[in-house]
Amino acid sequence: MAIPATMRAMVLEAPRQPLRETQLPAPQPAAQQVLIQVHACGVCRTDLHIVDGELSEPKLPLILGHEIVGTVVALGDGVRRFRLGDRVGVPWLGYTCGECRYCRKDQENLCERAGFTGYTLDGGYAEYTVAYEQYCFHLPAAYPNAAAAPLLCAGLIGYRTYRLSGDRVEHLGIYGFGAAAHIIAQVAVHQGKRVYAFTKPGDTQGQDFARRLGAAWAGDSGTLPPVELDAAMIFAPVGSLVVEALRATAKGGVVVSGGIHMSDIPAFPYRLLWEERVIRSVANLTRRDGEEFLAIAPQVPVETTVTRFPLEHANLALQTLRAGELEGAAVLIMPSDRDVQ
After folding, report:
1. Are 236 and 175 in contact (CB under 8 A)?
2. Helix, strand, coil shares of the chain as percentages rounded to 5?
């Protein structure tokens, strides 16, 4: 296909400013990179943290977006994993050095020189993007473009959070029932776990949504569930939820924070942590997480709930996410893909 000289993109020029619709030169793939025509890109809470200045080291100007679904349209030197026309997904982790102490210990998600899509590398709020081939995924054919986009962060980070919650879990709590929670709850229910969903107080719509996806119970975040939890996952960026989750967990329970940013955790009595309870965080993802989750998702099968926005309405999508008015995930649709979504 003919690749245009320019492309449309929504660009962040400074924190706490709206994205600006811009015409930019289409990028060119370097060695080991593929050029991707973007079809859809999910809108993640991490994007909000970047726009709001809570993640303070983005490249600027920046094209946000790290839940990218698109087609490979050009190959850089040395590319071997993909061919022209392949449909690929691009996640948050966009590059690792392969040499630092974390990479050598198979902890690439902690790489000291990592690059992150839509943060230190330009992302998918644009008609075209480039990505390193080793950090792209083949996508399950069962998922249309818009439906596949949330799998690439909400799904992948949700899966890593779920995996780190432990193997011996029967009763699993989920705090914050948004994009990640609505995906991983389906995996947990499929694997025989009883899910207890916690939403902000009074969010009966979110609680009903959780029950429709198989939750055994749903209620306000300040309420104790009917049983003690073996583990709890926190997807809302609210530090006080760590304390609420500790109150709800049984002896030896694990509380996992799946977010990249959270408000301060308030002081709490040691008795809530005692009896070998554990608090841990999730940092980024590994390629292994991605491969495992994308194999599991069609087996469940995970169904994503998405609200579509045209590219030029990216600011509205971010505003809707900030207001908590979404059921599931927001996805930007590119002009070339609107007729098939």
Report:
1. yes
2. 30, 30, 40
Residues 130 and 235 in one domain: no
Nearest to 115 by CA among 72, 66, 70, 153: 66
**Residues 199 and 231 both lie in one domain:** yes
How big is the chain, counted in residues?
341
Give the CA count within 13 Å in the CB-facing half-sphere of 68.
Answer: 34
Q: How far apart are CA 92 and CA 95, in angstroms?
A: 9
With b for 16 or more beta-carbon neighbours within 10 A and e for fewer, the 145-156 pattern comes to bbbbbbbbbbbb
Looking at the fold, whether 119 and 40 belong to one and the same domain comes out as yes
Q: What is the CATH number of the domain that holds 138?
A: 3.90.180.10
Q: How far is it, in rounded angstroms, from Cα 281 to Cα 267?
A: 18
| Per-block mean pLDDT, blocks of 10 residues, the chain (341 long) | 91 97 97 98 96 94 98 97 97 97 96 97 98 97 96 94 95 94 96 96 93 96 96 96 97 95 96 97 93 96 96 97 90 76 44
Residues 163 and 142 in one domain: no
Question: Of 215, 223, 263, which is closest to residue 244 (Cα–Cα)?
Answer: 223
- In the numeric block, the tokens 């709206």 are attached to 18
Q: Would you tell me how many other CB atoms lie within 10 Å of the CB of residue 158?
A: 32
Rounded to 5°, angle at Cα 299 from 298 and 300: 95
Are residues 121 and 244 both part of a single domain?
Answer: no
The predicted model scores a pTM of 0.92
Which range marks the domain in which residue 262 is found? Answer: 156-281
